[in-house]
């Protein structure tokens, strides 16, 4: 690929210097990358268009956001066609950036898969957002529209970037636009603090990523990804680049212990923004880790996979445990995101282990599980965050202790949220089961690893994964049961209303995706196979599938058919209904349920979020820092209170914050406010420089 600026046209145009590699017919290949850039430019135009009517919520919500959703759908279609055709990569150079470092773009199967994820999830979220945003005391509608669509465009450019310069520009744009979205209600101090923590962690991660690119250029001072692919790094510097990438992208993804920002930012942000951040933005970190680990670094070591596997499993377990004890529905989903990101990184780590041990078929299985779970998580987690947004608008409550019985008042939201709840719990025939089942199948082949140490320890990961999945199901029973089942815990819930038609449409799109992938996982399995075939080389055979079943390795070992399972469930329910209808017709007697011998029951006697989390608090008490206020039998006004904190916050982050504060105070002593002192500093600096020079 030519990188000389002399071959670049000076005018700004999306038709700028186009290079196609590996495709004989440019008439077929050219439109894919060009169309994607047109959509990105379209999002920017939409954001700017809102400034024409800055306070018109009708224009922003009912015109610009639906157009943004149409742009997301276009991205999904273009990326899907690119994956279905299994094309080679397309590259482009834009006449932007620095004189000697223009912007490089690249579309290949890996970037196409994550653009497909962005497009599918973004379509549902943008449609929901069109009916969600109301007039309030926060950010003006036009600014919200601008920040939202810049956020979408920057994530797309991160995935398409083919040089470190453009990647970091888009990465920082993504961080800043999402920061402004998180702090939409900036008049609330807690939201400002959450936004500051998020921005701080985002920039710390960005520094690590920048240093990673600096290591990977290998002394050539060429920052295109093609140059990094050809750089020759020693094992030490390759490992240093990998560790910097793991810290940088892990901070953005929310891996433990870099997760502190995530449970603070999600409750602070509007629900569509929370869905966008959890469903899509976290996956840009997954994409970056995959790009560096499997594409840019030409040497890999099994220790990398073992480290990523351990961090992924610990993050997943940590997130599941903390989600089980939350009483705020958005914080619960935020910790659940940490759990699912941990599962994704577990799959990537397992793929690295298999790939470095020359087991490409098993590596393809583990990597496919990670890719499919990334797509699945973008669907069901976005669906659940949006459902909590509808609940929040209908009740003005986020606390689980003040909700309940909403299935009667909000049947549409309750039904669609049930799909997301069952999917994230990993129950068939929905999409969450497919990726977790594939990952578990990957663990069953770890005895094939040629290292005795790994053969002894890695199978424990399968047990840990089973525990994590069980805890996730437990968390979702708590989430759905406390919010939608039982009786209302507050009298004000009687005035709750269901979602409007735009919100239902957005929720329905995401729920349909959860069902479709669960019934026909072959669709996304072929897309993941296109990625693994390019990333792992020709030896990585695509996993076998048919219209009925998917077969990870061999039919005699394991296979799964979501369609057959669905037909079986429908058949059993249908036969049961018919038998009851005809054999027991007219024998039904309606009466009040058993009152356990106490006829004066109230909504306060239902299971609470604290009660459902109590067993987890006892079993995993070492993870929590708890403050309890328990009443004594003689208390006239008994009061019960429990406060749970993350031990890592006090053990890691607060000491770091105090250390930085001390350094800042010491540096502040230099600011004496006297001109003579500042002249003395200049004189001493000059003396030191002269000593070094002479």
Shape: globular
- Low-confidence stretches are 1-30
Gyration radius (Cα, Å) is: 27 Å
- Determine the N-to-C terminus distance: 46 Å
Q: Which percent bin holds the helix content?
A: 55-70%
For the biggest β-sheet, the strand order reads 1-2-3
Q: Enumerate how many helices there are, as a single number.
A: 23
Give the number of DSSP strands. Answer: 7
Question: What is the strand content?
Answer: 5-15%
- Write down the secondary-structure element order: EHHEEHHHHHHHHHHHHHHHHHEEHHEEHH
Largest β sheet strand count, sense and barrel closure:
3 strands, antiparallel
Explain the layout of strands and helices.
Blueprint: E1 18-20, H1 26-49, H2 57-85, E2 90-98, E3 101-107, H3 109-132, H4 141-160, H5 164-182, H6 189-216, H7 225-230, H8 235-253, H9 262-268, H10 271-296, H11 302-324, H12 329-356, H13 360-395, H14 406-409, H15 411-424, H16 431-443, H17 452-484, H18 501-519, H19 522-535, E4 544-545, E5 550-551, H20 562-583, H21 609-619, E6 624-629, E7 641-646, H22 647-668, H23 675-693
Antiparallel strand pairs: 1-2, 2-3, 4-5, 6-7
């Amino acid at each position: 690929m030519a990188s000389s600026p002399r071959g670049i046209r000076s005018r700004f145009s999306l038709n700028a210097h186009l290079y196609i590699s590996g495709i004989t017919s440019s008439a077929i290949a050219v439109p894919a990358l060009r169309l994607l850039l047109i959509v990105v430019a379209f999002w920017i135009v939409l954001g700017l268009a809102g400034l024409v009517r800055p306070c018109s919520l009708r224009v922003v919500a009912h015109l610009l956001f639906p157009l943004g959703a149409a742009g997301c759908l276009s991205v999904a279609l273009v990326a899907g066609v690119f994956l279905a055709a299994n094309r080679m990569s397309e590259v482009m150079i834009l006449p932007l950036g620095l004189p000697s470092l223009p912007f490089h773009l690249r579309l290949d199967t890996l970037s196409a898969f994550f653009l497909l994820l962005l497009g599918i999830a973004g379509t549902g979220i943008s449609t929901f957002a069109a009916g969600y945003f109301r007039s309030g005391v926060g950010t003006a509608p036009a600014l919200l529209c601008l920040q939202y669509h810049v956020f979408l465009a920057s994530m797309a450019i991160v995935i398409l970037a083919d040089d470190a310069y453009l990647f970091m520009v888009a990465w920082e744009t993504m961080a800043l636009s999402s920061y402004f979205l998180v702090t939409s209600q900036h008049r609330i101090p807690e939201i400002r603090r959450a936004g500051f923590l998020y921005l701080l962690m985002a920039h710390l991660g960005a520094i690590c990523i920048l240093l990673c690119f600096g290591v990977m250029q290998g002394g050539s001072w060429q920052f295109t990804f093609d140059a990094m692919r050809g750089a020759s790094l020693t094992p030490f510097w390759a490992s240093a680049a990998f560790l910097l990438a793991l810290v940088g992208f892990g901070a953005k993804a929310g891996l433990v212990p870099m997760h502190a920002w995530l449970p603070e930012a999600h409750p602070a942000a509007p629900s569509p923004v929370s869905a966008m951040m959890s469903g899509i933005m976290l996956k840009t970190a997954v994409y970056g880790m995959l790009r560096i680990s499997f594409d840019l670094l030409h040497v890999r070591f099994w220790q990398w996979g073992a480290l990523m596997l351990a961090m992924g499993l610990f993050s997943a377990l940590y997130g599941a445990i903390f989600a089980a004890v939350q009483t705020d529905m958005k914080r619960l989903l935020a910790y659940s995101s940490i759990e699912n990101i941990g599962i994704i990184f577990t799959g990537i780590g397992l793929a690295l282990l298999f790939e470095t041990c020359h087991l490409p078929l098993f590596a393809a299985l583990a990597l496919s599980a990670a890719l499919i779970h990334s797509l699945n998580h973008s669907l069901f987690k976005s669906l659940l965050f949006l459902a909590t947004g509808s609940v929040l608008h209908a009740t003005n409550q986020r606390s689980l202790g003040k909700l309940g019985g909403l299935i009667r008042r909000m049947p549409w939201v309750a039904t669609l949220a049930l799909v997301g709840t069952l999917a994230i719990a990993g129950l068939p025939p929905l999409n969450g089961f497919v990726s977790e089942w594939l990952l578990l199948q990957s663990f069953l082949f770890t005895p094939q690893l040629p290292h005795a140490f790994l053969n002894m320890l890695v199978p424990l990961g399968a047990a840990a994964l089973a525990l994590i999945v069980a805890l996730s199901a437990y968390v979702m029973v708590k989430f759905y049961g406390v919010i939608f089942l039982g009786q209302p815990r507050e009298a004000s819930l009687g005035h709750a209303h269901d979602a409007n038609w735009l919100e239902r449409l957005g929720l329905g799109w995401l729920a349909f995706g959860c069902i479709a992938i669960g019934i026909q996982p072959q669709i996304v399995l072929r897309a993941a196979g296109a990625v693994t075939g390019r990333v792992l080389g020709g030896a990585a055979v695509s996993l076998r599938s048919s219209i009925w079943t998917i077969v990870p390795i061999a039919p005699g070992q394991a296979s799964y058919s979501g369609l057959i399972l669905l037909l079986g469930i429908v058949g059993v329910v249908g036969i049961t209904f018919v038998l009851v209808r005809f054999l027991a017709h007219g024998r039904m007697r309606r009466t009040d349920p058993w009152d356990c011998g106490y006829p004066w029951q109230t909504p306060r006697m239902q299971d609470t979020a604290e009660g459902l989390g109590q067993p987890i608090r006892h079993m995993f008490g070492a993870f929590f820092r708890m403050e309890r206020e328990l009443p004594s039998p003689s208390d006239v006004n008994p009061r019960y209170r429990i406060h749970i904190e993350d031990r890592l916050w006090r053990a890691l982050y607060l000491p770091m914050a105090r250390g930085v504060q001390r350094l800042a105070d010491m540096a502040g002593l230099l600011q004496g406010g006297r001109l003579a002192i500042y002249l003395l500093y200049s004189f001493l600096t000059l003396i030191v420089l002269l000593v070094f020079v002479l």
